[in-house]
Write a structure and sequence with these properties.
mainly alpha
Length: about 90
C-alpha cells in the first residue's frame, strides 16, 4: 500500500477536481489502478469501467471505498453514465 494512502482525503480536493470522484480519490491516495485492484479485489477492467462511468455497482463501490478509506457515500452517490446504474 502506498504511504500516501494513509493520508486523510479532503472532500474539497475531490469536489474541486474535474475528475470522476473515484479517480480523484484514488489519485489523491496515491494508488495506481493496479494497486487499487489488488487492495480491493476487483479486476483492473472493473475499476476502469467504474472510473469511466460505465458501471456503478454499489457492492463494488463499497469495496473500493473501504480500500481507499473514504466514506462510502463519497463514491456510491457518484453519477454513472447517463445517470443510471448499470445492471449486471
Amino acid at each position: 500500500m502506498p504511504n500516501t494512502a494513509r493520508k486523510a482525503i479532503s472532500n474539497d480536493i475531490i469536489a474541486a477536481s474535474d475528475l470522476n470522484p473515484l479517480k480523484a480519490a484514488r489519485e489523491t491516495r496515491g494508488y495506481t489502478i493496479e494497486e487499487l485492484s489488488l487492495t480491493c479485489g476487483l479486476a483492473v477492467g472493473e475499476i476502469v469501467d467504474i472510473e469511466d462511468g460505465k458501471d456503478a455497482d454499489p457492492a463494488k463501490l463499497r469495496r473500493i471505498a473501504s480500500a481507499l478509506q473514504v466514506p462510502e457515500e463519497e463514491l456510491i452517490g457518484m453519477p454513472a453514465a447517463e445517470n443510471r446504474l448499470v445492471q449486471q
